[in-house]
UniProtKB/TrEMBL annotation:
This is Small ribosomal subunit protein bS20c. The keyword Acetylation does not apply. One of its GO terms (biological process) is translation. The lineage of its organism: Eukaryota, Viridiplantae, Streptophyta, Embryophyta, Tracheophyta. It is found in: Plastid, Chloroplast. Belongs to the bacterial ribosomal protein bS20 family.
Length: 209
């Protein structure tokens, strides 16, 4: 009596009742299917039928003949619907990141700025060197003509200092540029006799006892 009233025996009885119910449902469905097949044996779309015009759309393809149901060829197959899955694809961005694009813009801006500063320095130096060469070639040149050249040299010095301050030129490079102009000007003055360098004093020899 204890075994029959236990929870395990109740679960077994419930399981067997479910199996009997499923078996009965299968038998009823199979009998319905066989009855359907027997009914299709008497159905014909070619013969005289009061609703023949309504049944005409059943011939939906060339492979489906109107004698299909009259011959009673009925097949029952199970159809498994595929699962629907959606795939979302995202393309990689073609444009650069904001930080990289900003760095590229800044680098291009600095390149153009430095190029302009260096070009100005070269132009100023070329103007001074040409003026000094012209003055050196003149046979009747006067010392007052150096003043105009000195103004050009001052403008070149200013351009060089601005380029060094902006970072377009290194400070040592700027010093070499200014030294080149100063040496060239002194060479022209020495050539025309407007400047006489002081003689270099020889070091005195110290007598040793």
């Amino acid at each position: 009596m204890g075994y029959q009233n236990s929870p395990a025996s109740a679960e077994v009885r419930e399981k067997k009742s479910r199996e009997r119910a499923m078996a009965g449902a299968c038998l009823s469905s199979s009998s319905c299917c066989w009855n359907l097949a027997s009914k299709f044996n008497t159905l014909s779309l070619n013969g005289p039928h009061p609703n023949a015009a309504a049944l005409k759309p059943l011939s939906f393809s060339a492979n489906t003949s109107l004698n299909l149901f009259s011959k009673g060829s009925v097949s029952l197959t199970s159809v498994q619907m595929p699962f629907r899955r959606s795939i979302v694809c995202e393309a990689a961005p073609t444009k650069k990141a904001d930080s990289a694009a900003k760095r590229a813009r800044q680098a291009e801006k600095r390149r153009l700025y430095n190029k302009a500063k260096k070009s100005e320095v070269k132009t100023r130096m070329k103007t001074v060197l040409e003026a000094l060469d012209t003055l050196k070639k003149k046979t009747d040149a006067q010392s007052e003509e150096v003043i105009s050249v000195e103004k050009l040299i001052a403008e070149a010095y200013s351009a060089i200092d601005k380029a060094v301050k902006a970072g377009s030129l290194h400070r040592n490079t700027g010093a070499r540029r200014k030294s080149r102009l100063a040496r060239r000007k002194k060479a022209v003055e020495i050539h025309h006799g407007w400047y006489v360098p002081a003689p270099v004093a020889e070091p005195a020899l110290v007598a040793t006892a």
